Amino acid sequence: MGQDIRKMMRDYKPGTPKLSEGHEKRFEARLDAQLSKPERPMIYWLKIAAVIVAFLAVGSFAYFSINDKGAEDGLTTVENTNTETIPESVITLGDLSPDLKKVESYYTTGINVQLASLKVNDDNKELVDSYMKRLNELHTEYKVLNKELNEVGPNEATITALVDNLQLRLELLFKLKNKLEELKKQNNENYTI
Length: 193
What we know:
Number of helices: 7
Low-confidence stretches: 69-87
Oligomer: single chain
Region (Disordered): 1-23
Keywords: Coiled coil, Membrane, Transmembrane, Transmembrane helix
Radius of gyration: 36 Å
Number of strands: 0
Transmembrane segments: 44-66
Strand content: under 5%
Mean pLDDT: 77
Coiled coil: 128-186
Structural class: mainly alpha
């Protein structure tokens, strides 16, 4: 029952398949019938609608991309809260590289979160005001450094100073928060005694 495959392969002679009579003529007739059919008007209008939708999508994407040029810098509200806004033609730290943009976003987000979580009352107003004064000084220094970045161009010293400024502001807010917690604990201890 077993057969030798090698012998079968040596003896194999490929043959060309025979098509039934009239096969080629029937195929050509079907092909001509399909190609000569007029296109249905509904499909024609659907194609036009698809092209219009594609143009609208691309156009709206381009429009919003151009108009929201500075939308990614929406996290930099600390720089804009106490003073005038920075013009759009000014280069900021985040414009230099994606890594610096991440660093700037990290610190400005942290600063904004800490500022939003501050609870100011009559007991701690003086302490908060002194820290806010220092924060405003650091913000002014940041604007000067940013101006230097635009006038002189990006260099390592300016970039490092900008990052250090952001870091110092965040650390200052953490210190303020710790001082406020200590003050709150101290006030609570005074009331319980």
